[in-house]
Automatic annotation (TrEMBL):
<keyword id="KW-0436">Ligase</keyword>
<dbReference type="GO" id="GO:0004077">
    <property type="term" value="F:biotin--[biotin carboxyl-carrier protein] ligase activity"/>
</dbReference>
<feature type="region of interest" description="Disordered">
    <location>
        <begin position="1"/>
        <end position="20"/>
    </location>
</feature>
<dbReference type="InterPro" id="IPR004408">
    <property type="entry name" value="Biotin_CoA_COase_ligase"/>
</dbReference>
<dbReference type="Pfam" id="PF03099">
    <property type="entry name" value="BPL_LplA_LipB"/>
</dbReference>
<dbReference type="InterPro" id="IPR004143">
    <property type="entry name" value="BPL_LPL_catalytic"/>
</dbReference>
<keyword id="KW-0092">Biotin</keyword>
<dbReference type="Pfam" id="PF02237">
    <property type="entry name" value="BPL_C"/>
</dbReference>
<feature type="domain" description="BPL/LPL catalytic">
    <location>
        <begin position="31"/>
        <end position="216"/>
    </location>
</feature>
<feature type="compositionally biased region" description="Basic and acidic residues">
    <location>
        <begin position="1"/>
        <end position="19"/>
    </location>
</feature>
<dbReference type="InterPro" id="IPR003142">
    <property type="entry name" value="BPL_C"/>
</dbReference>
<dbReference type="InterPro" id="IPR045864">
    <property type="entry name" value="aa-tRNA-synth_II/BPL/LPL"/>
</dbReference>
<protein>
    <recommendedName>
        <fullName>biotin--[biotin carboxyl-carrier protein] ligase</fullName>
        <ecNumber>6.3.4.15</ecNumber>
    </recommendedName>
</protein>
């Protein structure tokens, strides 16, 4: 079923005047242009998961590259390791984009979550004045009261043989009493200069388009595109002692010393071994 545009829904979208609805028509007018990446921006009042919806559309060949699906509310949003991501309606940005990175070897597609993190952090710094750090592989961190907190996350999923759906969640106006877990944050709590979601979403999508086109023009080469260097410069995980909790229940502890050419986090262990980690949950044990 095709998601409805929130602008067409009669669902009491103005119940919280501090959290106005997104303007789907204005977003399409600002972002969809001939020759550009974004071909359509669809705003739906609520859904289970924008990633699941867009993966289904892409798999059924019902969506082209550049479709953006935004939900005002998600009730089954997912993060890595199938963690749930929920928030009050219109308190954040919950959206997914469909990419078909033709010309880029599949082995380099693993850089897409890291690329998205760089794009989002760059946009938030510029448009909202919030310094946003990256926790490998997919968390967005801001500082609230001197404490590092997670304000967003990224989830990339394959869709068929030639597509990737990248989902992005950003807490925008969540208040302290609304935070879902300890350690969560929001742009508002981090002192953002704007919490206008239309403005933030436009900036994020424009930044993502710029980084994606640069990366794709370089054949997905993270060094030639400048992605590897930029990611490392903004990665709060590097230089820290961390514990990598790996699939299967094992773990590795060491200092995070690099992000390699495959996007893996390299840990220097006490045994003098440099161990690359391609998947896992990272726990920061000590500040850099």
């Amino acid at each position: 079923m095709t998601p409805r545009d929130a602008s067409d829904a009669n669902d009491n979208r103005w119940s919280d005047l501090d959290r106005p609805p997104l303007n789907g028509t204005a977003l399409r007018r600002a972002l969809v242009r001939e020759g550009g990446l974004w071909g359509d921006v669809r705003v739906t009042p609520r859904t289970g998961s924008t990633n699941s919806d867009l993966v289904a559309l892409a798999t059924d060949e019902k969506a082209d590259e550049g479709v953006v699906l935004v939900a005002e509310e998600q009730n089954a949003g997912r993060g890595r390791l199938d963690r749930q991501w929920t928030a009050p309606a219109r308190s954040g940005l919950f959206f997914s984009v469909l990419l078909r990175p033709t010309g880029v070897p599949v082995e380099r597609w693993g850089w897409l979550p890291l690329l998205t993190g760089v794009a989002v952090a760059t946009a938030l710094s510029k448009v909202a004045g919030v310094d946003t750090a990256l926790k490998w592989p997919n968390d967005l961190l801001v500082t609230v009261g001197g404490e590092e907190r997670k304000t967003g996350g990224i989830l990339a999923e394959r869709a068929g043989n030639d597509a990737v759906v990248v989902g992005i969640g950003i807490n925008v106006t969540l208040r302290e009493d609304e935070l879902p877990v300890p350690g969560a944050g929001s742009l508002a709590l981090a002192g953002a200069t704007t919490t206008d979601r239309d403005t933030v979403l436009r900036a994020v999508l424009r930044s993502l388009e710029q980084w994606y086109e640069k990366w794709r023009a370089a054949g997905g080469d993270p060094a030639a595109s400048g992605l590897q260097e930029t990611y490392a410069a903004g990665c709060a995980t590097l230089g820290r002692v961390v514990r990598a909790e790996l699939p299967g229940g094992t773990s590795i502890t060491g200092e995070a010393v690099a992000v390699d050419g495959d996007g893996r986090l390299v840990l220097a262990t006490e045994e003098g071994v440099q161990q690359p980690v391609g998947a896992g949950d990272i726990v920061h044990l000590r500040p850099a």
